[in-house]
Every structure is written in structure tokens, then in C-alpha cells.
Amino acid sequence: MKLAPSREGPRINEEIDVPQIQLIDVTGDNVGVVAIADGLARAAEAGLDLVEIAPNSEPPVCKILDYGKYKYQAQKKAAEARKKQRTVEIKEIKMRPNIDTHDYDVKMRSIRRFFEEGDKVKVTLRFRGREMAHQELGAKLLDRVKDDTSTIAKVESEPKLEGRQMVMVLAPR
Q1: CA–CA distance, 30 with 20 (Å, rounded to integer)
Q2: Is the pTM value of this prediction over 0.85?
């Protein structure tokens, strides 16, 4: 029965407590199955560490390398992965049913910019006063938005009325 490593990361040098290991030398060549003492001796001769790379294989795979450098590279790789990770935000565009053509064009430019940045867009159409009696104008406007963005976006949730506002969510293609 193997015990879990006492600290984070792979086991190194004397922490490896199995009789046989699959050894990979400094140049990356597979030496084969050797005794742990032989692996430790080769690592000491090279002035490097014996690091357990694949602990779950039979026998475990160990490589002769500079552990400090290995840890640093792993840290850099993790930081790079975090940097490239991006959360998708939902941006909201608010309109009114009787929006003017220029105002509509400005809103459409914002929507396109949001899609280029990889964000989703929630288009909210607010009805005030007697505009509630003409909901078909709002539906037409949202259809127009849907048609204008059809090449760059897909409809994630169809327009639906929630109280005094009609809401539609678009996602980039």
C-alpha cells in the first residue's frame, strides 16, 4: 500500500519508496527498469534530482532533472493558463420600442463590440405607459436585432415578456 506524498507536488530523491523504477535520464532517453538505488546514484552523479513523474504506473516512472527548474516551469505554465482563461460576461443593452435609427445603430455597434470580445448580450426592451398596448412593436424591434446580428450571433433565449420589459439573450457564434 502506497502512502500519499507528505507535501504538494511529486516525490523526489529519498521520498520515492519503491524497489524498482522506470528511469528516464537527463537527455530524455528511456534507460529502462532499474533499482531505486541505481537511479539515485545516477541522479547524484549528474548533480540533479530523481523526480517521480508518473507515480501511478507500474513501476513508477522517474526522471533525472533539476527539481527547482521543473517546479518553476510548472508554475509558469499554470500562470500562463490562468492568464489565458477568460470568463464570459453578460452585457446588457437597453432599448425602448420607439428608438430612433441613429440610436439603434449606436446600440448595434456596441453589441458587435461585445461579441468580438466574446461576451453574451442581453437585449432589454422597456415599455413605459401606453407602450404596453403595442408590444408587437417591441417584438418587431427585437426581431430586427436578431436579423442584424444573425451572422455573428445566435439566439440563446427567445424574446419573452417579463413584466414591463421584453428580454432576449444573444451569444457569439
Answers
A1: 14
A2: no
Q: Please tell me the distance from the alpha carbon of residue 172 to that of residue 112, in angstroms, as a whole number.
A: 9
* CA–CA gap between residue 84 and residue 122 (Å, rounded): 25
Alpha-carbon distance of 41 to 53, in angstroms, equals 18
* CB proximity list for 170: less than 8 A, separation 6 or greater: 111, 115, 120, 121, 122, 123, 145, 146, 149, 153, 154, 155, 156
Alpha-carbon gap, residue 78 to 47, rounded angstroms: 27
Amino acid at 4: A
Are 82 and 53 contacting, i.e. CB atoms less than 8 angstroms apart? no
d(CA 125, CA 107): 12
Could you give the CA distance from residue 172 to residue 155 in angstroms, rounded to a whole number?
A: 9
Contact between 152 and 172 under an 8 Å Cβ cutoff? The reply is yes
pLDDT in tens, 79-135: 988 888 777 789 999 999 999 999 999 999 999 999 988 899 999 999 998 988 988
